[in-house]
Specification:
The complex is a heterodimer of chains A (110) and B (114). Chain A is mainly β and 110 residues long. Chain A has no helices and 11 strands. Chain B contains no helices and 11 strands. In chain B, the strands form 2 sheets. In chain B, strands 2, 4, 5, 6, 9, 10 and 11 form a 7-stranded mixed beta sheet that branches. Chain B has a 4-stranded antiparallel beta sheet with strand order 1-3-8-7, with no helix packed on it. Classes of the chains: A mainly beta (110), B mainly beta (114). Chains A and B meet through strand 4, strand 5, strand 9 and strand 10 of A and strand 4, strand 5 and strand 10 of B.
Chain lengths: 110, 114
Amino acid sequence: TQLLEQSPQFLSIQEGENLTVYCNSSSVFSSLQWYRQEPGEGPVLLVTVVTGGEVKKLKRLTFQFGDARKDSSLHITAAQPGDTGLYLCAGDQGAQKLVFGQGTRLTINP
Amino acid sequence: EPEVTQTPSHQVTQMGQEVILRCVPISNHLYFYWYRQILGQKVEFLVSFYNNEISEKSEIFDDQFSVERPDGSNFTLKIRSTKLEDSAMYFCASGAQLSSYEQYFGPGTRLTVT
């Protein structure tokens, strides 16, 4: 069983602060996706990283894939209340299925 | 922007009844998936479907589950005899590429089995 562990599980910070959340595994993934999920809704794809060491930026969000393709991080600069939500990482081992982490629930306080 | 749609948004059924959850994937996508999320738990893979057949299925996807693409637009998940533990959010996803990344999820159907 491939496991993806996300940390921290909960994070509450003030508006304007920076933060990093992590997604770790002992398994190698062909690609890794980050999703954001609002309560009662489906996951919304934010980004896909494919190459070891790859860095992708989406406005104030920076995603990095580890060199060994076993881990990833999401860094948010100058967090805003609109960033509040559940962030999920999901890995693909090329088996036509995604393995999800348990998520990091992020709260940005005004 | 194209999106995956699912109906109904909420389905309540009695234990032992059959339910069919419906999905309309993004129109030019060829790969289709069902996932479920029990309240407070991780999103779990159920099944993938391509070219009118199942590509991969998980241990959860036993004989009580089936999937079908009855026409060119719909993708359905049937649970033949629901159990209490089938209560969950069920998400349909679709993708355009052979590899399973870039999957786009629908809003989900909340299934409550009483």
